Amino acid sequence: MTFRTRRWVRPEDLNPNGTLFGGSLLKWIDEEAAIYAILQLGNDHVVTKYMSEINFVASARQGDLVEMGLRAVHFGRTSLTMRAEVRNMITKDKILTIDRIVFVNVGDDGRPAPHGYSEITLTRDRIPARLSR
Ligand SMILES: CC(C)(COP(=O)(O)OP(=O)(O)OC[C@H]1O[C@@H](n2cnc3c(N)ncnc32)[C@H](O)[C@@H]1OP(=O)(O)O)[C@@H](O)C(=O)NCCC(=O)NCCS
């Protein structure tokens, strides 16, 4: 599991109880997973297909720092399945786990397209050509 992105819990991320709003967390994770999928599949046309049970293990408070981790667990023909974990850098608590987030690689027609990969890359060798300048 590689933890890359960190977020600072700000007032706009809180629920009425004064703790981190689950919707904010899911938005961050979905974007993190999209970027992960783009860089693994070499295509910026990827879409969220499925998320398994989301386990909100602990909360976070305003001012806490949280970090998000993802790992590819399965390369399908057109899909990529990832596992996600978010932890609180201050309390060291695990905040959230998602066992399976599935993204699908799509073509220009929006239909699933084979991505041709079967293993994780740890370098930046799959940056989509259309994003390159
Ligand atoms: C993503 C989308 C193009 C897939 O279309 P589809 O007809 O379901 O495609 P397929 O049945 O060929 O499945 C494509 C891949 O997704 C996987 N898949 C489909 N349904 C799945 C499910 N419920 N859970 C996990 N994986 C699933 C398939 O196993 C396949 O993977 P593989 O090729 O690696 O074996 C279509 O469902 C779609 O456009 N969904 C909306 C996506 C979106 O807008 N997301 C963001 C907003 S929430």
UniProtKB/TrEMBL annotation:
GO MF assignments: long-chain fatty acyl-CoA hydrolase activity
Domain called HotDog ACOT-type: residue spans: 1-109
GO process terms (BP): acyl-CoA metabolic process; fatty acid catabolic process
SUPFAM superfamilies per record: Thioesterase/thiol ester dehydrase-isomerase
CDD domains per UniProt: BFIT_BACH
Classification via PROSITE patterns: HOTDOG_ACOT
Keywords: Hydrolase
A GO cellular component annotation in the UniProt record: cytosol
Protein origin, superkingdom: Bacteria
InterPro entries registered for this protein in UniProt: Cytosol_ACT, HOTDOG_ACOT, HotDog_dom_sf, Thioestr_dom
Family statement drawn from the similarity comment of this UniProt entry: Belongs to the acyl coenzyme A hydrolase family.
PANTHER family per record: ACYL COENZYME A THIOESTER HYDROLASE, HOTDOG ACOT-TYPE DOMAIN-CONTAINING PROTEIN
Protein name: Acyl-CoA thioesterase
Native species: Nakamurella flavida
